[in-house]
């Protein structure tokens, strides 16, 4: 058991070190020597756990993809519970807002997720995981659900709405890799304060929280119905 635990810790150190190096240098430039040194593991130890740099990149992508799945599934589950109790928290648009806040928070604190998104856009890497595609499909499903429940603005195409949200959130993810301010909670809150009046049907806007259901107080002048 002790040996297994030590092996698991070594693998975790290697995945995180690889993510840091991939995020800083990209896949092609990243070297096994730098990754093993960053992790504090010998080159032999690295090859024992991961046969190649490709295997490390796949592990980073898989870990990031799992984290994104946990966000989308977890937020949707929490919203279902809120809806059963009473509330606006169960609407599809609020699910979308909450998931974007959870994703940006994860990008801000977890280098593995940042590296996973970076790898999927790296022309030198051809992994089997498309994190941005995964996110795009999920956003499309949630916006379609908003249209079915009548919370989407009248006359607004669900496809156009989904594309706008995906374009904006992926843009924040890309910029956040260089400047963390782009994935900060207040940046996303301001985005949703601007966007939700265009997305939400009349009568539903006041019940939506641009800072997310688990967020803090909306800055003065940035909430709905505050005039």
Second-tier CATH architecture of the domain at 60-207: Orthogonal Bundle
Catalogue the unreliable spans. 80-89, 216-222
The total count of helices amounts to 9
Structural class: mainly alpha
Q: What is the 3D shape?
A: elongated
Going by CATH, the homologous superfamily of the domain at 60-207 would be Tetracycline Repressor, domain 2
CATH class of the domain at 60-207: Mainly Alpha
Task: Find the count of extended strands (DSSP E, 2+ residues).
Answer: 0
Proportion of β residues?
under 5%
How does this model look, in words?
The protein has 227 residues and is an all-alpha fold. The protein has a domain at 60-207: Orthogonal Bundle (Tetracycline Repressor, domain 2), CATH 1.10.357. It contains nine helices and no strands. It has helices at residues 2-25, 32-39, 43-49, 53-85, 92-109, 111-120, 131-149, 158-176, 185-199. The longest helix has 33 residues, at 53-85. It is elongated, with a radius of gyration of 20 Å. The termini are far apart.
């Amino acid at each position: 058991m002790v040996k297994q635990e030590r092996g698991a810790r070594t693998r975790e150190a290697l995945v995180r070190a690889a993510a840091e190096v991939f995020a800083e240098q990209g896949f092609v430039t990243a070297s096994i020597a730098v990754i093993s040194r960053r992790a504090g593991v010998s080159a032999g130890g690295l090859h024992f756990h991961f046969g190649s740099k490709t295997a490390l990149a796949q592990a980073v992508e898989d870990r990031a993809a799992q984290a994104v799945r946990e966000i989308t599934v977890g937020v949707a589950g929490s919203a279902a519970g809120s809806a059963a109790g009473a509330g606006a928290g169960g609407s599809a648009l609020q699910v979308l807002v909450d998931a974007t806040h959870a994703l940006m928070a994860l990008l801000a604190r977890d280098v593995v997720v940042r590296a996973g998104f970076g790898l999927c856009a790296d022309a030198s890497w051809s992994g089997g995981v498309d994190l941005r595609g995964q996110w795009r499909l999920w956003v499309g499903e949630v916006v379609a659900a908003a249209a079915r429940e009548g919370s989407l603005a009248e006359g607004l195409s669900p496809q156009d709405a989904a594309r706008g949200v995906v374009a904006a959130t992926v843009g924040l993810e890309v910029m956040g890799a260089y400047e963390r301010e782009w994935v900060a909670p207040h940046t996303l809150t301001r985005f949703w304060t601007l966007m939700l009046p265009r997305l939400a049907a009349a009568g539903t806007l006041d019940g939506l929280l641009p800072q997310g259901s688990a967020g803090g107080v909306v800055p003065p002048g940035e909430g709905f119905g505050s005039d």
